[in-house]
Structure formats: structure tokens, C-alpha cells
Specification:
Chain A is an all-beta fold and about 110 residues long. Helices cover about 0% and strands about 60% of the residues of chain A. The model of chain B has no long low-confidence stretch (mean pLDDT about 90). The chains are: A mainly beta (about 110), B mainly beta (about 120). The interface between A and B is medium-sized, with 22 and 21 residues.
Amino acid sequence: KNQVEQSPQSLIILEGKNCTLQCNYTVSPFSNLRWYKQDTGRGPVSLTIMTFSENTKSNGRYTATLDADTKQSSLHITASQLSDSASYICVVTDSNYQLIWGAGTKLIIKP
Amino acid sequence: NAGVTQTPKFQVLKTGQSMTLQCAQDMNHEYMSWYRQDPGMGLRLIHYSVGAGITDQGEVPNGYNVSRSTTEDFPLRLLSAAPSQTSVYFCASSTGTGITNTEAFFGQGTRLTVV
């Protein structure tokens, strides 16, 4: 069964620190992988999208990496800010264009 | 820029009641969809539409109906509410025929409680 697993479930870090969120998937073959940010009480907003041929994609302080061989992706946040507190969701699109959503990592930035 | 607008933001229903969750987008997107989000789980697709007059079932369609009479609107109807339908509901729209290489835009969600 196609699955997307994210770790950790939740993470607390101090403002200014870096962190890395993980996404492992079993979707094969896949079309693309996207990271979304979801603020509390809001809908998800896209951060990055990568196809199987891309290794890295950056969006400001957010850098996503993809290893299609090991079926792993990570989202690295540099110099965290209070506004980074949110849930981060990994979504994989399969070859039938169906979206497989991870449950998300809840990130809390403390001052 | 309105984007995707969902109403209401909060709703409490009694078991057996029916209601309609409204969703409207002003971006002229063809593809619209409804998801539910439950704690500890990924978003699950309820129904989707690839254009006016065309709808199809997603992963968890039971207990819900949709229609798409215009490009802009995609309402979700709960026929007879059950406590298992307590969830946060999101409407999304995107260009093209799927949320693939194009970006999906989400509404701010409707938090529904069925008692």
C-alpha cells in the first residue's frame, strides 16, 4: 500500500536554531513530492515541489532534498523564526496522479 | 485576493442533521476537491471535480454529496450527519486536471463537530 511516513511527529526548538524534518514514502513509481506548511487554523500552503530527477529545492530558509533511490525526503529549516511554528506535510503524487498525504510534523519554535 | 473561500468556519450539528459546506474560488481553476483532516492522519480526499458538471469520488465519499454547476462553486453536502464526520474540512482548487505539478490552493477550513 502506498504510504507516506513523517518523523518526528512533533518537534520543539529554540528560535534561531536549525532543524530537519523527515519524510519516507513507499509510493512507486511517483510523479512528484511536495512539502506544505499548515499554520494552525489555516489550509496548507505549498513550500516546494520536486520531481524524481531533482535532488534539492530551496525556498528562502527552507531547503528540501529528495533521494529517489531510498525514497526519502527531508525539509531543512535554517535560522528558525517564531513564524515557522506550523505543521509541515509531505505529499507524494503517484503515477495515477493520486495524492498520498503524510500526517505531518508539528513544529514549535520557542523564543 | 480572495482565493478559495469556505463557509462556515465552525459548525456544530446534531446527529442526523444535514448541511452544506460552501466553497468558492475566484481563480478560474478547473480542478476542485474536498478533503477531511483528522488528528494524526493525512488529508483524505472526499470528492473532486475536474470541471463544471463533472464530479467523482475520492477515498472517503460515503455520507457526502457534491455538485459542480459552475466553475467557481463546489459545495459539499452532508446528508445525515454522524459523529464520525467530526473533522476539519478543506476545499482546494488548482489549474489543470489534478494537483500535480500545479499548485493547489486551500481554503481556511471548516471545523465541524457532530454531537
